[in-house]
Structures are given as structure tokens and as C-alpha cells.
Amino acid sequence: MPYWHRIYGFGIINASESLSRRYNNNLCGNLPTTFSIGSALQSFNLHGNKVQGTIPLFLENCQRLEVLDVGDNLLNDTFPMWLGTLPELRVLSLRSNKLHGPIRTLGSGTMYLELRMLDLSSNAFTGNVPMSMFQHLKSVRKIDPSKKAPRLEGHIPRSLGSLSSVESLDLSGNHLVGEIPAQFASLTALEVLSLSYIHLKGCILKEINFIPLRTIHMKPSVPISSELGNLKNLNDLLLHNNQLSGPIPSELGNLKSLNHLLLHYNHLSGPIPNELWNLKNLNYLVLSNNKLSGPNSSELGNVKNFNHLKLSDNQLSGPIPSELGNLKNLNDLLLSNNQLIGSIPSSIGNLRNLQYLFLDDNNLTEESPSSFCNLTSLKFLHLLRNNLKGKILQCLGNISGLQSVMMSHNNLSGEIPLSICNLTSLQSLDLGRNN
């Protein structure tokens, strides 16, 4: 039975309930110091009590110790370097105490060889985590520095490339600069890489395009590399809120396992590559707040697994493709603030799961299609600032879940349907600036 659910290098640990909750009591006083040489103790868990004092030095005699969890107590001590010599130690949680001073290692090459989980967060440690620490953590599976943990600074440590078992590496929010080390090419088990809010330079992923990554979350200030298309096992590509510019590489269409593609809030330009519409597993596409242009391809109707399609705040032009009606699983359709023209296709009425329909701030004309009556799951209907004409549909009053109806600044005419009064969930209604 494993001793962990999630494994973090220096961040917050969510250990199993048997380790982190079952032992929450109100025990107080100092830790005992009576362990003898050759002790058979394998697990020592006092998590979530009111224990004070120091971490007893005699624990180094417990050579079979696998779990040491004294997190969430009142211990007042410096970092116990000697714990790294325990040959069987797999779980070490010292979080949320009053530990202080710098974090140091003994410099031995045999430290923490079996360690899976290390949590030093929410203490009063000073300075930065020594880079030498990483070369010992051969068995760690997940490294995630938290905001309350000691920070890394300088270049990304090349020694991370020796952690052949690591599956998730999150270095976000640290004081790291420079390029991704070439040694990362050795991280053959890596599935999740997060490098947000640090200052990378050079070509993204130049050295790691053969790693079986599942998720990438970066905040770089360089263009998107076409080499990302080599990461054939990638599930999630999250590059939003950056300064990325240029076109979306068509090579992203090679990522057949991709579920989430988030590129919003950048400066990307040019058309949306048709190759993206061949990603049959894609269910979350967010390209909003860029400078993308050109018409929407009819081929987007091929992505039948779409749940969320957000293309608002771009420069997309032409009519709305009727093939959108093929996306039967769609929950969100956001096309607002573009340059779309023509009528709203009646096929949108096929989207029975649709909850958010934002078509505002375009140049749409003609009447709202009567097929809107089929959108029984709809919560938000925003059609404002277009050139729509005709009457407000009576059937809108039958869509009981509607919370926001915004249809101002059009050429609508006639009376306001009395059925609107049936919308007990309605919070916002704007029909101003019409006829």
C-alpha cells in the first residue's frame, strides 16, 4: 500500500487520510528521545497535534523508519540534515511548524535515496533551497514548490535531469532564469511540466521534444515553437496570459491526444490552423483575446468532443459556420467581439447542452433563429451590439434556467414577450437601444 497520494518536492503535500488526518488529536509536550539503536520503528506520525520542542536526534537510530510525519505542530528547530541518512525513509513531512534557519545537506551521495514525499512548507526557513538537494532525490515522483515554501533562484538546476522517476515537475513562481537544461531530455517519465511565471529564454522545449509529456504550463515571453508538435502524448497545452506572438503552429495538429489547448490573452495572429480541427479528443479550446483573423472553417464541426469553444476578442470574419450544430456536447460557445457577419445559423439549436452563448459585438444580421427555443440548458444569451432584427422570441420565457439575456443595441422591434416574466432565475435583462 503506497504511503502517498501526491508527491511534492517542496510544496504542499496531500498525503492519504491514514497519514494526515487520522492522527489529528490534541497531544502536547515534547517529543520523546528514547529510541534505541536498532529500533524496529517504521512509521512515526504525530501530524496535527500541539507537540513542541525539537526533532529528537535519536530518530537517526531508527534505520527502518519509512514514514516521519510531524507536520502541523509547534516544533522549534533547525533543518535536521541527519534525516537524510535514514536508508528507508519514504515520507518526510515537517510542514507547518516553527522550523527556522537555512536548509542544508550533508553532501553525501547516499541521502534520501528512497524518498517519495518531502514537505518543508509553511515554516520559517531562510535562504534558498540548495541545488545540491536535487541530486539526491532519485525516487521523488512529483516536485512542486509552493508559495509558502523556500524558493529556488538562479538557473534551473541541471541536476534535476538525474531524477529519472519524476513524473511531475512544477517550478512555477521561483526566481529562475535562463534556458531549459539539456539534461531534461533524460526525464523520460515526465508527464507534467509547469514553468509559469519565470523568465525563460531561448526556444521552448528545444531539448525535450521526445519526453512523453502530458501537460505543459508555461509563461514564457518567446514565440510558440513548432517543435511542440513532436510531443505526441501531450494531453494539455496551457500557454495563456503571455506575450506570445506570431501564428499558431500548424504542427499542433499532430497532438492527437490533446484535450485542453489554452492560448488566450496573447498576441497571436493569422488564421486558426485547419489542422486543429483534426484533434478528435480536443474538448477545451480557448483562443480568445488574441489577434487571430480570417473566417472560421467549416471543419471545426469535426471536433465532436468539444465542451468549451472560446474564440472571442479576435478579428475573425465571415459567417458563423452552420457545422457548429454538430458539436452536440458543447457547453460554452463564445464568439463575441469579432467581425462575424450574416445570420445566426439555425443549427445552433442542436446544441441542447449549451449553457453560454456569447455572440455580442459582431455584425450579425437577420432574425434570431426560432431554433433557440431548443436550447433548454441555456443560462447566458448575449446578442448585444449586432444588427439583428425581428421580434424577441416568445419561447425564451420557457428556458427556465436563463440568468442573463443581453440583446441591446440591435434593430429588434415589437413588444417584449410577457413570457419573460416566467424566468425566475433571471438576473440581468438588457433590451435597450432597439426599436
UniProtKB/TrEMBL annotation:
Reply yes or no: does the keyword Transmembrane helix apply: yes
Compartment(s)? Membrane
Q: Which residues form the Disease resistance R13L4/SHOC-2-like LRR domain?
A: 292-431
> Is rRNA-binding one of the keywords UniProt gives this record?
no
Q: Gene3D superfamilies, from UniProt?
A: Ribonuclease Inhibitor
**Where on the tree of life does the source sit, at the highest rank?**
Eukaryota
Any one GO biological process? defense response
Q: Which UniProt keywords apply?
A: Glycoprotein, Leucine-rich repeat, Membrane, Repeat, Signal, Transmembrane, Transmembrane helix
- A cellular-component GO term for this protein: membrane
Matching entries from SUPFAM superfamilies are given as: L domain-like
Membrane topology is: Single-pass membrane protein
Name assigned to this protein: Disease resistance R13L4/SHOC-2-like LRR domain-containing protein
Organism per entry: Capsicum baccatum (Peruvian pepper)
